[in-house]
Structures are given as C-alpha cells and as structure tokens.
Amino acid sequence: MKVLVISDTHGNHDNLDQVLKQERPYAQIIHLGDIEGDEDYLQAAAGCPVHAVRGNNDFWSKLPGESIFEIEGQQIFITHGHYYHVAAGIEYLIREAKSRDVDIVMFGHTHRPLVRQEGRLSVVNPGSLSYPRQEGHRPSYLIMEISQTARPEFFLKFL
Prior knowledge:
The strands form 2 sheets. The chain has a 5-stranded mixed β-sheet with strand order 3-2-1-9-10, with helices on one face. It has a 5-stranded mixed β-sheet with strand order 4-5-6-8-7, with helices on one face. By secondary structure, the chain is α/β, with parallel strands linked by helices. The protein has helices at residues 14-23, 39-46, 91-99; strands spanning 2-6, 28-31, 50-52, 66-71, 74-79, 104-106, 114-118, 121-125, 140-145, 153-158.
C-alpha cells in the first residue's frame, strides 16, 4: 500500500497540488501538522482517507494533537512534534513512541526530513513542502510502502 506522508504545508497549495498529482495513486495520506486552515482543502483534493494532526501554527484547528492508528498491521503514532521538543532533539519523542509500543513514529515541525531506525521503531519526518530548512532547501515529502508481509519502506522525495 502506498501512503503519502507530508507536513508543514502552511496553507500553500502549489507544491501540495503538485505532489498530490504526481504521486497518484496512493491509498492514504498522512499530514503531520501546520496545515493552517486547509484541512477541508486537503480532504477534498486527496480523494482518499487522510490522517492529520494539529501543528503549532494550527491555532483554531479541531484536529487532534496526536493520533495512533493502524495501517497494514503496523501501529503508527503521528504528532507534529512541538510538544516533544523535537527542534532540540528527538530522544524524548523516541522514548514516548517506545513506551506506547508503536512500530512507526512520524513527526514534522523541524522542516528537516529524517528517516531513521531505532531498533524495530521507524522514526520519520517528511520535512516541509513549503519552507524546507535542510541543506539545499528543496521541498520534501515521503512515500511509505507498507504491507502485512514486510517491514515498511520509506522513500524520501524532493520537488
């Protein structure tokens, strides 16, 4: 199953629309916060189920601050990350994810992409589609290939 993972779109549609178009078909979308009022836009444009959480710039959003759900037998914990102080490091978030016995933890907030294994825990951040902060400053996102029979694979992509 192909899952599109995005974060920190900050209300900008150009790159979001480009990614939605070029990555079709996908079965689900995960948005890790800082949508900035575009929850309805994303849901309408997606054409599939969307899992999303509230970011630190989603002031009036009714989205949850974090969520745990299952895809293809994998427990996935999603959060924007600011409540776990990810800008200062991800150790606290990793400890929290391990204490919740999840398989995958996904976060945003730093605007820097990351794919890392911590034992059986996959730790991922797609970076930002609008305001990338990593070297080269290219907008980024992730594709997660997930199935019942294999470990999930994560493919970092850039515009």
